[in-house]
Amino acid sequence: MACAQVLLVEDDPAIARSVIYTLERDGLAVTHSLLLSDARRQLGLRAPDLLILDVGLPDGSGLDLCREIRTASNLPVLMLSAHGEEIDRVLGLELGADDYVSKPFSPRELLARVRGMLRRARMHAPAPVPSSGVSPFDIDLAGQRISLQGRQLQLTRREFGLLADLLRHPGRIRSREDLLAAVWGADSDSTDRTVDTHIKTLRAKLQEAAPGQDYIVTHRGMGYCMGT
Ligand code: CA
């Protein structure tokens, strides 16, 4: 099995160094981001096998990124919470983080948690969504990838979230509010128009992959639905 890829989001250089050293020595490949913005970019380029996410980062809270990830993916998330920040730990777990360690932590303890999470993720890897032989889509939630008729789609994070949501509700109309809440989060400033814009680009990508097909059906005034 290829060595597991870990994305570490941590702005404290000393902590990052010791985590990277420990994980790499154990054969894991580590990519490091100091900022949430860079972490989002990394996640868009390639889904890691596991995310280690600090809460307090210079450009925002790791909790927000954790929430975003959970709208569309089962990517294992280990939160690093500042010492004594009980609220971060509770919130992180509520938002769907799989585990946490409080600072200061020993690198060995972190490694043991990471190993345990990777093992569980492999055991519980979602079976490919049952296609019952008819769906032309293959969805890899952990890897945030979707293929159409065997061709991997090049989707942005939001497009992935939209398509994954529509595929989870086949034949059901999803209102723009449903999609906003599922993909952007309930407290986002995005509007119905944001959904429409992303559906438009998503639709263009699907048509490019499967010309002549229109999988996403617009129900005027109501929302969108995955046709079959
Ligand atoms: Ca920090």
Structure in words:
By secondary structure, the protein is α/β, with parallel strands linked by helices. It has two domains: 5-124, 3-Layer(aba) Sandwich (Rossmann fold); 137-226, Winged helix-like DNA-binding domain superfamily/Winged helix DNA-binding domain (Arc Repressor Mutant, subunit A, Orthogonal Bundle). 43% of the residues lie in helices and 20% in strands. The protein is built from eight helices and twelve strands. It has helices spanning 13-25, 36-45, 62-70, 86-94, 107-123, 157-168, 176-184, 192-209; strands at residues 5-9, 29-33, 50-54, 56-57, 60-61, 77-81, 99-102, 137-140, 145-148, 151-152, 216-219, 223-226. A five-stranded parallel beta sheet has the order 2-1-3-6-7, sandwiched between helices. The chain has a three-stranded antiparallel beta sheet with strand order 8-9-10, covered by helices on one side. Strand 9 (145-148) and strand 10 (151-152) form a beta hairpin. Helix 1 (13-25) crosses helix 5 (107-123), helix 6 (157-168) crosses helix 7 and helix 6 packs across helix 8 (192-209). It starts with a strand and ends with a strand. The model is unreliable at 127-132 (pLDDT under 50). The structure holds calcium ion.
